[in-house]
Amino acid sequence: xxxxxxxxxxxxxxxxxxxxxxxxxxxxxxxxxxxxxxxxxxxxxxxxxxxxxxxxxxxxxxxxxxxxxxxxxxxxxxxxxxxxxxxxxxxxxxxxxxxxxxxxxxxxxxxxxxxxxxxxxxxxxxxxxxxxxxxxxxxxxxxxxxxxxxxxxxxxxxxxxxxxxxxxxxxxxxxxxxxxxxxxxxxxxxxxxxxxxxxxxxxxxxxxxxxxxxxxxxxxxxxxxxxxxxxxxxxxxxxxxxxxxxxxxxxxxxxxxxxxxxxxxxxxxxxxxxxxxxxxxxxxxxxxxxxxxxxxxxxxxxxxxxxxxxxxxxxxxxxxxxxxx
Length: 325
Fold this sequence. Notes:
By secondary structure, the chain is an alpha/beta fold. It is built from ten helices and 16 strands.
């Protein structure tokens, strides 16, 4: 068991998505050094925001670094939707189910996890160890002065989840329940790891930049009184023409969570931001800047401040001087 120690602050790192070499460069830029195979800092710790796997060229390296740091007490982590997807994809459904796997092995679902499975193909025991570790990852962290979740902090739902799972971790029964739409576990996993998916009108779809056709868009959770789709959309893909000004119905407004300005600083990933890192609000930071699409792998250096400061973002370009990860 790793010993707890006092730290001066946390370095929160967004979605790595298999950009393992870029993660090394970012940790070194933050002042971490490899000692006995683990990246360490004398006075700081890392918090990973999930989505270590899928898409990138060095997935095993990314997982190895993060797991080594967490196991050694040098980092914390929350589960992302890609770790959750992997667990459901790789666990068989109950014998009385009509399906073989908790997450069906459709071409679409396989495409998401394909690069991870390819890179672990020759290392099956290592992959089994990773899956076992993913099951131990908490869905959220409520530390002294800050909160962390992969996609959305829905306070009533988080409270209800923690009442049932005080350590914020799931088990096999919860994982199985989460694949039943409408169940409590499904609502928890969907909201905390995927956020709010707002359905598009019938017949309308988005061809996203990752090649998928989507019939919903990602909505954020920090607009106090939203009126239109444009007030809440939070994703790199533009809405189809005329939908920015489409009014939100009462039912659509009910779907949205809200994180108040008075709440502790919150750090999320998930949303594929672009450009120079910026704060959507003074107590919210999104750290997913599309690293795997040769964007930026981004960290925030938190030192206890309750109003976040954009000057505390630190990043590395995943594509720099023509060198790919």
